[in-house]
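Friendly challenge for the regulars: who can give me the structure tokens for this chain first? No prize, just bragging rights.
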Amino acid sequence: MTSWYREEGGIGYIEYDGKSKLGANAMLLRTFAASPHFEQYQLKASAAADGILALQNADGSFRPWLKEPNYPFDAKYLLTFYSGEALVALLEYYFRTGLTRYFDEAARSAEFYLEEYVRNIADNFYPAYVPWHTIAYRHLYELTKAGKFAEAVFTLNDKLLELQDRSYRIGRFFNPATPQYGLPHASSDGVYTEGLAYAFEMALRTGDPVRARRYLDAITISLKNIASLQYREKLDESSLPFYVYRGAIRTNAGKNSWARIDNAQHTIDAIRALGNFLGSKQASTFDTGL
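First reply, four minutes later:
Bragging rights claimed.
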């Protein structure tokens, strides 16, 4: 907050290196909504929520930057990450406050992206948008019970499973036939697994045991792959003390040994979500096989 939070004209945002991106501001709002100190930061949370709405277009779509960089960027690509993050943030803020304005605006944006990312999935598919929009549509289904949100979750995650490796490094989300979707990355594996946990819950909610089994199987092999990337023993070739990297998850099984925070955090969030859903009433009659 001291280093990067700014307010201007009643709008709160994160500014870093002269730029302010929708995705960072969405994570700021999610942090406020989840904080046990929410009341202390309530005015700033309201400003951050309004900052996200300031980037909403009349048709419900978002713009990726509150303060744009001085270099060219691909707005469509950035929004495959940021749009779903913004939807989730607005809905979590609504859950925390009960302020219907933020539910209404999230629902309006969801209608745009249902058309863009779900109904036109053949033309616009990019895997990065699947988990965030899955979580958003799960929340919207919980609030409205509208079948279109359940169907959107299934459409997105059924498509995502086409990327999961079941032959070479089993469980990772990488298909050599579609290199345009990026190289193997533990952060991607983690967030895709988190989205699949919500898809699993949606299948349980709607009485679809075939999909529930398929999603749970995909989650299981994904977590096994991620576990294989975790540092559990001291590396003889490293001069670093073991506590520095113990439990960290390297980015992939190749030459990239970097351990990024999102590699671990997405995995933690996936496991937490799965644990919650496995303990739910809907799961009580489902044979998980675990």
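The longest strand covers residues 5-8. The mean pLDDT is 95. Your move, everyone else.
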